[in-house]
Amino acid sequence: MKETLYIIKIGGNVIDDEVKLSLFLESFASLESRKILVHGGGKLATKLAEELGIVQKIVDGRRITDPETLKIVVMVYAGFINKNIVAQLQRFNCNAVGLCGSDGDAILAHKRNHPVIDYGLVGDVDIINTGFLKIFLEKNISIVFAPLTHDGKGQLLNTNADTIAQEMAVAMSSDYEVQLIYSFEKNGVLFDPEDDAAVIPSLNPAYYKELRAKEKIYAGMIPKLDNAFAALRSGVKKVIIGKAEKLKDLISGQSGTTIVNE
Description:
Blueprint: E1 3-10, H1 18-30, E2 34-39, H2 42-51, E3 57-59, E4 62-64, H3 67-91, E5 96-99, E6 107-111, E7 123-128, H4 130-137, E8 142-145, E9 148-150, E10 156-158, H5 161-172, E11 176-184, E12 202-203, H6 205-213, H7 222-233, E13 238-243, H8 247-252, E14 257-259
Parallel strand pairs: 1-2, 1-11, 2-8, 5-8, 11-13, 12-14
Antiparallel strand pairs: 3-4, 6-7, 9-10, 13-14
């Protein structure tokens, strides 16, 4: 029987809220299984860019990454946010290491080639170096992963954190029973984005298609759900979406939205 591996993506306003982040990290640290935390941090990057006078462009929830913006996201993602999370986990007696895609050749990617939109220095994942990640996991060292990859030719690439979590979950599923959790400030996938109690408890492809056709799915949730269904189709055991501070309830099925394939 395969060992359980939790791959948890943390994002949204939780990253910017010290109290919520601390509650989440305390729960994360207490998980006894092997675990990887993938984090975002776009709001802090946007704020710093604005303070430095660097104009930011967002298309369909994805950041256009010019060379100056890349410097900002590397400083914020792989710098402050990543190392702060690692430090907080150490406080909770969870030994952790902070990485990005260029460390140990962890994630090789290529610059996105979109037929209409030039996203700039944005990467789409090619290869996850599972052997490198397993070195840490097998020593019970949790991994905190910043959403940056590289192309093997010296170029760092900004890469969507939800996608990294999904690709990592798929790659690791050959060795582990992977549970992929997308955690943020909402209680789950909602019928109404303004009503946090309107949680959709379970979502399959047909129901998802129906809700999208009726424009009942918040636009910002669509890439996350696309990633979730792709992960299930590729061998990931379970995908859950919900509130970061309720991590243990998400894992036990008492909270959030469970994504199912049928």
